[in-house]
Amino acid sequence: MLLFRNTGPENHRHLSPEERQQLIVRWNAWFEGLVDQGKATEGQPLEIQTRIVSGTGGTRIVDGPFPEAKEAIGGYVKLLVNDLEEATAIAQRHPGLAYGLVIEVRELTPDCNLGVTTRAAPRAVAH
């Protein structure tokens, strides 16, 4: 999975409208190319608004965005690749890197460090 950081509007203020449009076109082409190759299964931006839930029973709830969260995750792309190296090579070709984008590359695992088994939710069938 690729996790995108530094995606907020403040990171693109220095770009002209034309440069922003060019970045959008290149970003979309990068993603659509991965989908066409069968390497990306999904991707989506995340809203800036966030909520943190913590404490026993989830009793502590704090709404953001948080100014200290400059490195907050702004979106993701889920990949179908052979290994971390292939995912890293895909991340290295992202056009947003030249504009301050930071990409965290993480492997998905079926088991969490506590031993809890996870699985994808079944897809809804349209009737």
Name the features.
2 helices; alpha+beta; 23% helix; single chain; two-stranded antiparallel ribbon
Written overview of the protein:
This protein is α+β, with helices and mostly antiparallel strands and 127 residues long. The protein contains two helices and six strands; from the N terminus they run E-H-E-E-E-E-H-E. The chain has helices at residues 17-36, 84-92, and strands at 2-5, 40-45, 51-54, 60-63, 73-79, 102-105. The strands form two sheets. A four-stranded antiparallel sheet has the order 2-5-1-6, covered by helices on one side. The radius of gyration is 17 Å and the shape is globular.
Write the layout of secondary structure elements.
Layout: E1 2-5, H1 17-36, E2 40-45, E3 51-54, E4 60-63, E5 73-79, H2 84-92, E6 102-105
Antiparallel strand pairs: 1-5, 1-6, 2-5, 3-4
Quickly count the helices: 2
Calculate the mean pLDDT score and round it. 86
Derived from helix and strand composition plus strand pairing, the structural class reads: alpha+beta
**Overall 3D shape:** globular
Task: Let me know the number of strands.
Answer: 6
Distance between the termini: 31 Å
Q: Taking strands numbered 1, 2, ... along the chain, how are they ordered across the largest sheet?
A: 2-5-1-6
Task: State which percent range the strand residues make up.
Answer: 15-25%
Rg, Å, rounded? 17 Å
Structurally, the number of domains stands at 1
Major β-sheet annotation: 4 strands, antiparallel
Q: Helical content, roughly?
A: 10-25%
What is the chain-wise order of helices and strands?
A: EHEEEEHE
Tell me which CATH architecture applies here.
Answer: 2-Layer Sandwich
